[in-house]
Amino acid sequence: MTTSILARVKVRGHSGYALQIETSSHKLTSDEPVKHGGTDTGPSPLELLLAGLGACTSITLRMYAERKQWSLDDVDVNVRIVKEGDDQRIERAIKISGPLDEAQRGRLLEIADKTPVTKIVAAGLPIQTSMS
User: Fold this and answer.
1) What are phi and psi of 122, to 5 degrees?
2) CA-CA distance, 88 to 49, in Å (whole number)?
3) CA angle at residue 27 from 3 to 31, to 5 degrees?
4) How would residue 20 be classed by pLDDT, with cut points 50, 70 and 90?
5) pLDDT classification of 53: cutoffs 50, 70, 90
6) Is the model's pLDDT at 14 over the cut of 60?
7) Closest by alpha carbon to 112, among 94, 89, 132?
8) Which residue, among 120, 96, 98, has the nearest Cα to 108 in the 3D structure?
């Protein structure tokens, strides 16, 4: 079975970098910061990628806790890219609150590494490009 998720990106205007992104039922804006020639009207594409990783992590942990009937209050995820010379990595810091024991917290940490977006980013999913 093939599953497809569509995100269509349209450019607003003929100059600059501001984009209108249309997904199945939502509209978002992306742009580049002023220091990179954009108008800073929305998050950069890289910020959107990191936001997607953070959102997927938070949602997945909440879903898992609900299925297990664990009392999970807040899930805060901070994600950043760290560049050191030619090396770079994504750092993800998760802060959870609620009356969870160490075993539950440990399991949620394991689940964080199994979220759908985490798997795609970590695996370096191949990209097939075409042009018309």
Assistant:
1) -65, -35
2) 15
3) 105
4) confident
5) very high
6) no
7) 94
8) 96
User: Which of 46, 38, 35, 48 minimizes the C-alpha distance to 12?
Assistant: 38
Three-point CA angle 120, 125, 127, nearest 5°? 135
CA angle centred on 74, ends 26 and 6, rounded to 5°: 20
Q: Which residues pair with 94 in a beta bridge?
A: 77
Q: Are 75 and 61 in contact (CB under 8 A)?
A: yes
Helices (H), the chain: 45-68, 102-112, 116-123
Q: What residues are paired with 28 via a beta bridge?
A: 21
Contacts of 44 (CB under 8 A, 6+ apart): 30, 31, 32, 33, 36, 38
∠ CA 24-80-66, nearest 5°, is 60
Q: What are phi and psi of 62, to 5 degrees?
A: -65, -45
Distance of CA 101 to the CA centre of its chain: 27
Diameter of the chain by CA atoms? 55
What whole-number distance in Å separates Cα of residue 11 and Cα of residue 108?
39
